Amino acid sequence: MTSGLKERALRVGLPREAEAAAKVSRRAADRLRAGHLWVYRSDVDEVYPAAGEAGVAAGAIVSVLDGRGFPLGSAIYSDASQIALRVVSDKTALTRAEYLADVKERVAAAIALRRELAPEAVHLNADTSGNDACRLIFSEADGLPGIVADKYNGLVVLQLLTQGTAQDDVREVLREVLARELPLETIVERPDARVRELEKLEMPPAGALFAKDAAAPVLETVFTINGLKFHFNAEAGQKTGAFLDQRLNYAAAAKYARGRALDVCTYQGGFALHMAQVCDEVTGVDASRSALQVADRNLQLNPQLAATVEWIEADAFELLREFEAAGERFDTIVLDPPAFAKTKRAAEGAMRGYKELNLRAMKMLRPGGTLVTCSCSHHVPLAEFMEAVGSAASDAKRRVQVMEMRGAALDHPSVMTLPETDYLKCVICRVG
Predict the structure, then answer these.
(1) pTM across the whole model
(2) 279, 374, 376, 429: which one is catalytic?
């Protein structure tokens, strides 16, 4: 540290031979004091190695200081991500051992919360509840930045998304607590390819972190949500394998759906199969052939569904243009596209995409039809998403009534002071 800043830090309790430190801009300091947990690289003014070190290691825990040297807590440091600091404690000079102790305590707390929010999903048997899958750990929302864990029946899939969490000591803590707290068959780690590239992470160790049967770890299973069965393969699919955040929205869509239904960006058939419980015909559209193959396997798992179900491999925008030109009409349409805005800079283009999808859907809905429209882009706030949907309604010259405004399932809680955790928007409308 520079001598003036070090002296200031000493006066407010940062030890002279302490952990590494990072000085942040006034803007970042104000955001942290207001409860936000991220500092972007552009707001890091200077990084100071610990005494005797030449630099700050990727994934190190650093003390966060404002411009005057006053401490703001401790954070995981990334030398690659645009999110350079993720706060993990309000304590300054947090040691790695203290951080791991906090992780152990917070994982147990996250599981305890799921026992309250989704008690049936934490156990293995879904015979009576109709649900045996949920999100166990949701990163910052559970005080565990860079850690995500999803449970599918007896199989848990981990994602360690930062340089500070994709380390063996964190893996061991997670293995210990999850295996102790839950009746599991297997715990596997599955990195997100895009995040691994951005964070410059090494590939995780091969094999399962935990297996009840070490000789034959379970990597495939069938899980149940809302009474419907779905295939799960820990080595295939997007993210941790399925979109559990939409669980309650699937059920809500089925409550309104009727007649002829279209599910755009169906992925593995989540909305489509739920609507097949109440509709006459359901068409699921996705650009991924492998996803549609899983969707069809999921359809076979649920022979009780009476609707005629068809899968179409196609680009959503191109197919909707073709359907509109051909005069196709539907009673229910679901729009659940992938995140259009993966960065803040992409938000403007995302708004155009949302408007076009919603405009074409509204034009194809019969009077009184239901539109379920979703966005999972945290860079597109609810107000802006609603503006795009409203603009589409205006251009389509349709009277659109909002029936429900929904978010992620309860096992995906958001943090009031971190709006990025409140990412999922699901709006159910009646189109007159």
Answers:
(1) 0.91
(2) 376
